[in-house]
Design a protein that fits this description.
This protein is of the alpha/beta class. It has 11 helices and 12 strands. Helix content is 44%, strand content 19%. Helix 7 links the parallel strand 9 and strand 10. The longest helix has 20 residues.
């Protein structure tokens, strides 16, 4: 199993109290520690304002951070969990991603999804069509991106997007293209798109959800004649980890407050995994046994705790 973590970005209220002129240095410090600790990948969210409520706090833009982190790091791979397809024309996104793959020396993980955050769409002037439409748009967008990564002059005519002789140089360094991650667990449509296009799937949720989505993805692969073993199964989670129970409780209280929720409600979220290092190791071993090849963790305490170090030193060695 490989391991990735998110930088603090503001979206989850993790830059509150940090002066604006100190926020990028704080992000950079976490990126440097992540690389030094031996993590495999470094991730950002693609959102424009904070959750659970919009506030006046900072939220750094994803692909701007991708470019910055590409030159601020040397080894760790760089991804977004995940790019909202609706926020950028696919032809433009293909060009941006290609550029960042070159700048980073071929370290881009290209992750994309259909989008879900209606309030954010409307706040920034994006139409928010029904889910089936957004997923069809996602399918067309991935086709355009792949074409522009591989053809001298890419042409595509779809219901939602079109390009006509689009030229994309420089192309990505990675061949045949950067790994394509498609996030989302919609069982009828999204997982069909995953089966057709993705190198990696990604889900959020508990072990049962991970298992169920994997089984459905296998069925979609069988229907289109693709080997399901070609698609790496991955999961992302909010992870609160500590060396002992006393430290864990203190971290949970602060992490829950960061999300403006009581600890009990925080722990009920299916995306939250909390425990001592031993407990987290045991839980993640179950995901590994079900075929998870890459875990992407948001650690709420990267700026004020030791979760980054505890996870790298007390959990990862048992699962790598």
């Amino acid at each position: 199993m490989d391991f990735g973590v998110f930088v603090p970005q503001g979206w989850r209220m993790d830059l509150v109290g940090v002066p604006v002129d100190e926020q990028w240095p704080a992000i950079l410090d976490v990126a440097s520690r992540t690389e030094a600790l031996g993590y495999d990948s470094l991730w950002v969210y693609d959102h424009f304002h904070t959750v659970p409520d919009p506030t006046q706090e900072s939220t750094f833009e994803a692909w701007t951070l991708m470019a910055s982190l590409a030159v601020a790091t040397e080894r760790v791979r760089l991804g977004q969990m995940c790019t909202c397809n609706s926020y950028r024309p696919p032809s433009y996104l293909a060009k941006v991603a290609s550029t960042i793959d070159v700048i980073s020396g071929g370290r881009l993980e290209f992750a994309i999804g259909a989008g879900w955050y209606e309030e954010e769409y409307l706040a920034y002037g994006y139409p928010f069509p029904k889910g089936s439409t957004r997923i069809r748009q996602l399918d067309e967008a991935v086709r355009i991106v792949k074409a522009m990564w591989s053809q001298d002059e890419a042409t595509f005519e779809g219901k939602h997007y079109r390009i006509d002789g689009a030229i994309n140089h420089p192309r990505p360094l990675q061949q045949p293209h950067p790994p394509i991650w498609i996030a989302g667990g919609g069982e009828e449509m999204t997982l069909r798109v995953v089966a057709e296009h993705a190198d990696f799937s990604n889900y959020a949720g508990n072990l049962e959800t991970f298992r169920r989505k994997g089984e459905i993805l296998d069925r979609h692969c069988a229907e289109i004649g693709r080997d399901p073993g070609e698609i790496g199964r991955t999961v992302h989670t909010i992870l609160v980890v500590a060396s002992d129970e006393a430290s864990l409780q203190a971290k949970l209280e602060r992490a829950a407050a960061q999300g403006n929720r009581p600890v009990e409600a925080y722990l009920k979220s299916p995306i939250v995994l909390a425990g001592t290092a031993a407990q987290v190791t045991e839980r993640l071993a179950e995901f590994q046994a079900e075929g998870c090849v890459h875990l992407i963790a948001y650690l709420p305490d990267t700026l004020w705790g030791d979760g980054l170090e505890v996870f790298a030193e007390e959990v990862v060695p048992h699962l790598r």
